[in-house]
Sequence to fold (320 residues):
Amino acid sequence: MSDTEFVIEPGRQDIVMIHVFHAPREVVFRAVTDPELVPRWWGPRFLSTRVDVMEVRRGGLWRYVNVDARGREYGFRGVYHDVVAPERFVRTWEFEGTPRDVALETVTLEEVPGGTRYVARSVHPSVEARDAIVRADGARGGRESMERLAEVLAQRPTRT
Amino acid sequence: MSDTEFVIEPGRQDIVMIHVFHAPREVVFRAVTDPELVPRWWGPRFLSTRVDVMEVRRGGLWRYVNVDARGREYGFRGVYHDVVAPERFVRTWEFEGTPRDVALETVTLEEVPGGTRYVARSVHPSVEARDAIVRADGARGGRESMERLAEVLAQRPTRT
Fold:
């Protein structure tokens, strides 16, 4: 099951991913900005994720490494432009294998009845760079990340 | 006179500005990354520019303030994603009046016969945000910046 929605229009430079989580906005924001939790939800299930650095503040650096079953590493990195708890953060995003194709990711959290609407908009330097990510099945990684994050949120202790 | 070229295609999210300077790449790179020089060339001629901060390194912050004849201030700011001397830098870019419309600017310097080709590509979070900048005559500010930067470069001491 997945209720992750994508908006990927032909000829545009962005990818929008939307998922509604059944958790309060503050809880979702804390989860997605917590370096300890990132390895539990970020990326597709067949890769593991290591957080090398994650400074969640304006000008802070981040770097995640995906590791496959054979131990090969794939690095991703960027800097935070803004962090406005609990509603949004904006950061740059680069796959180290294609360092000239830097994207800008804006994650916005909105309160909706029953939960939180998570919207991640990634805008790419060209249509071609955006389409390359779509062809590389970037949506699969995003969809699995959202599913895994929903699982992490479901496991949090209930406040009574 | 102006030999600044713009590529602004309908329905896309980016603005590309290109100018060929008659100066070596290292000289152009040093000029565009020097906080002392920014007030002499950045922005349209009818505004003055103050540099509040400009940390030209990965994760560094920048903030420029345009001041009009009546003393009103217009702030712009962002963070540097990457600085690769003398060939390129990548930074986020936000007009503080519209803080949700963060753009990503990539400046690339290429050596060409007789000088340096400066290419600034700004990619915006939506077509609408991009078009709003075009309507606000953002190209004028860019064109005048390029003319003013050419004047600054022409005034540099000749090496003998």
Observations:
- The CA atoms of residues 20 and 117 of chain A lie 4 Å apart.
- The beta strands of chain A are 5-7, 14-21, 48-54, 61-67, 73-84, 88-95, 103-112, 115-123.
